[in-house]
């Protein structure tokens, strides 16, 4: 039996109300708006309140996507959540979101692949539908990364922001636009380049790990930059080739929003003109698993996707992991659109 086709039918997003600008950060860090914006492209980011966790943001985004599609939580067959800042090690953040949106009884689990998590979750949800095990799958990327940042470390504090995005996957009819395919991969030789070392079974929480500040994100920025600019191009080309598409066929390129220099370099190497690249990095920073759905929601509101346009999404992150998705998107339901 041929696998069923899968479409992205709706998107919803949420960001916390508190905005922290580069000028705000310059009050406590040796930095400036010019230093941050020229090196990263970021000017401000949204930061979760003290009582907000990833599941709180993710639940709002999930509700937005379901409302846009006119789908009840009880109609879902599966809920997948990607996050590098889960509420707890366990139970799954998906369980918390399930309870908040009223999806009682719906299978729910977390998927961990750092900033690439949303792409892995999108591929996993698609596989459930393609194999006939599900009809409607909600994929959520939810991040409260600010809780894991050392706000005295200029190399990471200026980069990240909080937010959440959700997409609804459904079975596509024969005439409807659908996801064409994915390219996923991982290079374990780079596990030390980007991580949060303590708090798991390798380095359980202790006075020593706290003193060493191992409960915060650590990153080798220059090496991650080299990896990202290489792997975005390689993965994008691979998924295009698999489906007999050219970069000229792509209507919108939506990369993970980590750094504007990474985005510009990758787009230039791929040959994507600036007008076909989507970025909202300036206003949100790196929101990890939420970055691509945030872009999709804004692109839908701006009329830049839909009408069977071909969209190329590429994510990358710790692991070192990567994932690309090539999809034709028809009508994309969005509260913003």
What would you say about this model in short?
With 337 residues, the protein is of the alpha/beta class. The protein is built from eleven helices and 14 strands. It is 32% helix and 23% strand.
Structure, explained:
With 337 residues, this protein is of the alpha/beta class. It folds into two domains: 6-171, Thiolase/Chalcone synthase (Peroxisomal Thiolase, Chain A, domain 1, 3-Layer(aba) Sandwich); 179-334, 3-Layer(aba) Sandwich (Peroxisomal Thiolase, Chain A, domain 1). The protein has eleven helices and 14 strands. The strands form four sheets. Strands 5-4-6-7-1-14 form a six-stranded mixed beta sheet, with helices on both faces. The chain has a four-stranded mixed beta sheet with strand order 8-13-12-11, with helices on both faces. Helix 4 links the parallel strand 4 (78-82) and strand 5. Helix 3 packs across helix 4 and helix 8 runs parallel beside helix 9. 51% of the residues are buried. The model has no long low-confidence stretch (mean pLDDT 97).
Q: What are the defining features of this structure?
A:
337 residues, 2 domains, alpha/beta, Peroxisomal Thiolase, Chain A, domain 1, four-stranded mixed beta sheet, 11 helices, single chain, six-stranded mixed beta sheet, 23% strand
């Amino acid at each position: 039996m041929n696998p069923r086709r899968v479409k992205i039918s709706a998107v919803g997003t949420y960001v916390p109300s508190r905005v922290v600008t580069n000028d705000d950060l310059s009050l406590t860090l040796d930095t400036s708006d010019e230093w941050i914006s020229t090196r990263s492209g970021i000017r401000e980011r949204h930061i979760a309140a003290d009582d907000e966790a990833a599941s709180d943001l993710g639940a709002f985004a999930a509700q937005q996507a379901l409302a846009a599609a006119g789908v009840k939580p009880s109609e879902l067959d599966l809920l997948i959540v990607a996050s590098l800042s889960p509420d707890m090690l366990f139970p799954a953040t998906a369980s918390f979101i399930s309870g908040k949106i009223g999806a009682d009884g719906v299978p729910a689990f977390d998927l961990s692949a750092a900033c690439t998590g949303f792409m892995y979750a999108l591929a996993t949800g698609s596989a459930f539908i393609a194999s006939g095990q599900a009809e409607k799958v909600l994929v959520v990327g939810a991040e409260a990364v600010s809780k894991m940042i050392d706000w005295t470390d200029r190399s990471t504090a200026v980069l990240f922001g909080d937010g959440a995005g959700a997409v609804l996957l459904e079975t596509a009819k024969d005439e409807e636009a659908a996801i064409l395919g994915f390219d996923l991969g991982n290079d374990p030789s780079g596990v030390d380049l980007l991580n949060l070392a303590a708090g798991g079974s390798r380095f359980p929480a202790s006075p020593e790990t706290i003193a060493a500040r191992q409960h915060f994100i650590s990153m080798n920025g220059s090496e991650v930059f080299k990896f990202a600019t290489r792997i975005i191009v390689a993965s994008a080309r691979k998924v295009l080739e698999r489906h007999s598409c050219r970069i000229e066929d792509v209507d919108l390129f939506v990369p993970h929003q980590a750094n504007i220099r990474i985005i510009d370099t990758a787009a230039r190497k791929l040959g994507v003109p600036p007008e076909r690249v989507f970025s909202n990095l300036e206003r949100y920073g790196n929101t990890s698993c939420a970055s691509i759905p945030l872009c999709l929601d804004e692109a839908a509101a701006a009329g830049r996707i839909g009408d069977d346009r071909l969209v190329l999404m590429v994510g990358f992150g710790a692991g070192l992991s990567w994932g690309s998705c090539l999809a034709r998107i028809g009508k994309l339901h969005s509260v913003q659109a």
